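Summary for the funding panel

The consortium committed to producing paired sequence-structure records for every protein in the target list. Below we show the first two records in order, beginning with the earlier of the two.
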Amino acid sequence: MRDFYEILEINRDASVSEIKKSYKKLAKKYHPDLNQGDKEAEAKFKEISVAYEVLSDEQKRSNYDRFGEDGINGNFQDSGFGGFGDIFGDIFDIFGGGGFQRESGADRRDIPIKGEDIRYDVNLSFREAVFGVEKTISIRRLEECKTCNGTGAEEGSKVETCDRCHGTGQMKVQSSSPFGRVVRVVDCDKCHGTGETIENPCKKCHGVGKETVNKKINVKIPAGVDNNTVITMSGEGHVGENGGPKGDLYIYLNVKEDSVFKRRGNDLYLEMPISYVDAVLGGTIKVPTLTSLIDYEIPKGTQGGTTFKIKNEGVPFVRREGKGNLYIIIDIIVPKKTSEEQRRILEELRENSSKGHEEIKKERKGFFEKFKELFE
């Protein structure tokens, strides 16, 4: 037969507050959220939950002390409650429900509950997102009161079982309705659902056991993140209930657009202006990348809108090695003003082009034939 007192690491004459304190400590130690994938911790948590289910209830504890586990298996008429299997089943259902946050009985108030999560938005420049950066942010969160260590009581103050709800934290309230008398279960108005009363509440937290603090946190943002990327920092949220784990901090990233590069995933696009002379004759042009200016050879006869690819000059991948590509979109710039010498040369070029440039003649003929079809 299992010894519930040994499981909770308490003496047989332990008070209700001592039972609760030990349970919270052990529940936090073996909570599945803090021991993911650990089957032994999962089994241990279920075991201490069952032990607390029995020993925290005055009648169940009395029956257990007198008859052992038989006293909670319904083997005598004055037990007043269901079997051990039902208790274990309830605990298992709560475990399987995720988060241990479902309440379905008086003792559910002491089940460890994970703290609330926190959302924080961080604005990044384009280059901070591309190259990565470390930011220090300041959040406000609930933590265990440092003055009373989360007990809610002044040092030396007594924490006793509530005499109104007898430690259950709940009361039955009857009311009349057109369908008859209705019985509702509500939080005890004296202990506010805790099952305990404090003689002298902590002056810092006023008996709540928590305090709001400003916390500075360093956040390492990896290279290559994009707009709406979410960074999760486990355990940096609000403090949990009844020894439950802290919530998480979710950091949402907002990245500003760049005036030069346009990003699509991990690829970058750049509209590269070149002169019409370079477009016609070809040659070497200077192209900006994220880190430097590089020389790039364009072929003669390059048309406006032509796209060239430069491999591995894009944005780094976050979860694997390598980078995206840089795509150069050619934009041919025609000057609005020319010198007399330039004008003379261009006039000669136009004259020569109209006389012997078969390619231009062919393109013009095809264009006007299409234009003519619109009016036929």
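The next record, for a separate protein in the list, is shown here:
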Amino acid sequence: MTYKDTDFRQANAEMSILGAILLDNRVMDDLTIQLEPRDFTIQSHQTLYTVMKHMHESDRPIDLVTLTDRLNTYGKLEQSGGVAYMTEIASFTPTVQNAGHYAEIVHRHAVQRRIMELGDRIKSIASEGEFSEEEDMLQAIERLSDSIRPEGNGELVSITDARQEYFDYLARKDDLIHTGFPKFDEWMGGLGRGWLYILAARPSVGKTAKMLQMIQGIATQGKGQCLVWSQEMKRPQLFNRMLSSLTGVSANRIRLKNLSEGDMKHLREGYDALEMLPISIADAKNVTIDEIRAVARQQKRKHGRIGAIFVDYLGIMNIPTKKGETRAQAVGEVTKAAKHLAIEIDCPVILLCQMSREGKKAIKPSLEHLRESGSIEQDADLVEFLWEDPEDTDPGRDHMGAKVIQSVIAKGRDIGVNEFRYAFKGWIQRFDEL
């Protein structure tokens, strides 16, 4: 067996790990958490460890006889070096007790190796011009960077050992983020960092207006940058709506630019107020979840903390569908990635979504009315529907002319479900709680 281009210490550590497994199967309980097959530099060692890992997970004993039989079954006996080499490995191990230390050596070298390989691959991507679009190239680099990370493993902790951790958690005040809707915030306490919040409605019910009002409500709290991806409206259109709600100047007059000197004064003052808020808006079309993740990471490095991420809306995102995959499955992958993004960036992700056609006929919307639902309702921490009840059209004397919009919290992880009523004043794009 030759170890060309392989660090001698690494090869010895790999042999010692495999030998320790043959001598005492119990070491596999810890090694499966520490090591992946790709951590081994020598192909025969990768093969042996992969088969050993499979046998351990199947609760099969591992020794020279059983391992040889399993390798024969898989047709990989020669690929693993043969019986003579496995015998050599078993006799090579200095001591089973140091198996964990051998694993640390192998894993450390493996991560270093993957980082160096990543550098070479990035140079190749930059020099060969295999991507026509800059964003495609950046996304490819992001995926490569993620690939060097070890596979996640949950650490089991006894209730006794977790005691201090739990009471430390109770002593800390949760960093909840208010939305600017007082009754809603009082009920739920605020949005949790790491939450995926789905805001769904039929067209023209006001979901974008409610999103913009939430953005302003969150941005005033000093909780971090609010990042907004708008795929239907350009920035000026969003500013029109935000300033109409803030100043009371008619949204239609702003849109038509039919403005008096007094209107312009109010808009300038309103813009001065908006300018003080930590809000950044991208009005790119066909955005991908990878692109959002890349920008969010950059913004977190730049600003230190993100208050919330908003995407308007899910149905028109660029969602590639793999061969043999349905649209609903592809959408489900995006919502899973959005949930992971919320946890990674440590902020709520608010994802706007349309209801299915069936939802138009429903007296009250429910989770099955999410368009292309896939796993949306499974991934979401909170799902809110906005809808119009034909039997509830009176907002009261204080809100004459407003449209009554019902809010149904159809899913609230750890907080339950609830309903709210709003007066939507479309002429100034503002929601008032009723």
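Regarding this second record: Residues 1-150 form a domain with the DNAb Helicase; Chain A fold (CATH 1.10.860.10). The first helix runs from residue 8 to 23.
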